[in-house]
Amino acid sequence: MIVETLFETLKILFIVFILMTLVEYFMLRYETAIKKRITKKPLTQYVMASGLGAIPGCVDAFFIVSLYTKGIVSFGALVAVMLSTAGDEAFVMLAMIPDAALKIFMLCAVLGVLGGFLADKFVKVFRLKLHRKCRVVVHRKEKQQGMEHFLREHVCGHIIRKHIPTLFLYLFSTLLAINWLSQRFDLQTLLPQNHLMLLVFAALIGIIPESGPHLIFVVLFSQGLIPFSVLLVNTLSQDGHGLLPLISHSLKDTIHVQIFTTLFALAVGLLLFAIGL
């Protein structure tokens, strides 16, 4: 289990490292254009983040997390991608329930935009204090110093020394704990039979930073044992491994995202329950 967790951690870490390096490089070279086209246009952020989240896999969520930690996109964009993503289990959904999966992806993409908008409004109204972004430091004569300077100061000095060790510890410890628990408990036996309680349970299961538990709902839906609304609520609430890289940057922001996505998923579920779906 430890060896498997280590390999899983290194795989995620490598993807995040590549994305962080690319984001830092493009921020240094095209900061003005990026801020003009993305940072200053909230709706563009929500649509971009939600659209990327609808693509199967966790890389899209890692990408938006990288943009968020650099201050390029807002908290709302972060919420949008987490609401729309189904993580790696999206591939399983496409294989087992293709028609329902496509409907889920489209609905989550639309709801992600709405959720992102509401999240930023929530931050402003309640003056929510978010973690200070990790700004890219531009050194004197940056553009004249070339790739060697970028690799030495930004990749090695900033990303590898400052972020990677902490990120590795958070990823490994979290994944190890989840894998250990999943081998000792069968969540399927804990599912409530009441429809309303099942909706609540589906939203709460999404808090677990692992897409594996989501398979329970995919399998049960494929067998006709749970309604479409329960599967939708769980997909909205869960974000796979998407949020794990954010934990090392700010545990507080991670908790804020989890609270908002869970409550948003619950609200959607209760609305569907009220109209009989």
Task: Please provide a written account of the structure.
The chain is mainly α and 277 residues long. Helices cover 75% and strands 0% of the residues. It has twelve helices and no strands. Helix 1 crosses helix 3 (59-69), helix 2 (42-53) packs parallel to helix 4 (75-84) and helix 8 (195-205) runs antiparallel to helix 12 (251-274). It is globular and about 65 Å long. 40% of the residues are buried.
Low-confidence blocks of residues: none
Strand content: under 5%
Tell me the number of strands.
0
* N- and C-termini, Cα separation: 40 Å
Principal-axis shape: globular
Helix vs. strand class: mainly alpha
Helix count, DSSP H or I runs of 4 or more residues: 12
Whole-angstrom Rg? 19 Å
**Which sequence of SSEs, written as H and E, runs from N to C?**
HHHHHHHHHHHH
Helicity, as a percent range: over 70%
Q: Note the main sheet.
A: none
What is the residue-averaged pLDDT? 80
Query: In total, how many domains does the architecture comprise?
Result: 1
